Amino acid sequence: MNSTVNGSSGSWSCLNFSALKIGGTVTYCLIIIVSLVANSLIVILVCKTPNLKKTINYFIANMALSDLLYPIFLIPWDLSDLHTNSFLIGGPLGQAFQNLILIAVDRFGAVVFPLRSPLIRSKVRPFFILATWIVAVAVSSPRLFANELVESPEGTWCVTRRKKAFGESLSYASFVLAYSSLFIYIPVLLLVTLYSIIVIKLKTQAHPGEQSANSQQQRDRRNRNVLQTSIAIVTVFVFCWFPYSINFLIILYQDTLTHLSCSFWISYEVSIYMANAYCAINPVICFMFSSNYRKALKRLIKCAFVQA
């Protein structure tokens, strides 16, 4: 998802740009710090902790790697745009949602078909992880052809020439609508369906026999803990990205921006920060909801102090 809003100062006149720059700078700096530290820890813990070397955790680590692109490349760019009154947001949105779907499929197989081999086996797991990056890069590639560096008296600017990338037959608004449907709206419906089936299955499972019941209850408890983490990640993703995607589509399908209300621009500005904040919130959720990640982090910290 990528957007630029400039050249419409009249419709932005209700915003206090001085306060916006100060608050935005502080917010972005906080997001950068939390995202860099938390996502790096997720990747390190999955690589170093034996009991975290499971399919779902590899997908979470893969998502953490994509989230690291925000504080390293994208948010510094947003900070620069913030101080030039031009707003841009972009990132590996498709990659993140592909991981969420893979996590849901993995949980679906573990809960609904517990006696069968995993739906996503360890041998094919690297190919799925690689595929998430290939698809994300391929879908985002039109922007490589749309962006150009333009010299002006004020300096060098990155200008998006949308007709160059999309031609006359496909509008940029149609591309964004298709992109949002493919990587947000349709996947959300799929995720809701999968997790609904999982929840129903956990509530209706029978436990024949005392010993098998005990082992089944332990497995159910583990599945519920993992399920809580997965659902929390999906919920926060929707909460962070839905407002921005809807607001941006509203902007794209307007003939002129001057008639949009001040409250809309405020909500749009807030939605930009919410979307960017996901890269910092996502890893924090893993530590909040997963005792395995918390225990692994404690062991890592203890090990670091002992070696020091």
From TrEMBL:
CDD domains named among the record's database cross-references: 7tm_classA_rhodopsin-like (cd00637)
Compartment list: Membrane
Primary location: membrane
Residue ranges constituting the G-protein coupled receptors family 1 profile domain according to the UniProt record: 38-286
InterPro entries per the UniProt record, alphabetical: GPCR_Rhodpsn, GPCR_Rhodpsn_7TM
Lipid bilayer topology: Multi-pass membrane protein
Top-level taxon of the source organism: Eukaryota
Keywords from the UniProt entry: G-protein coupled receptor, Membrane, Receptor, Transducer, Transmembrane, Transmembrane helix
Entry keyword annotation includes Transmembrane: yes
Gene3D superfamilies: Rhodopsin 7-helix transmembrane proteins
Transmembrane region(s): 25-46, 58-77, 97-115, 127-145, 172-198, 231-253, 265-289
PANTHER family, per the entry: G-PROTEIN COUPLED RECEPTOR (PTHR24243), PYROKININ-1 RECEPTOR (PTHR24243:SF208)
Protein name: G-protein coupled receptors family 1 profile domain-containing protein
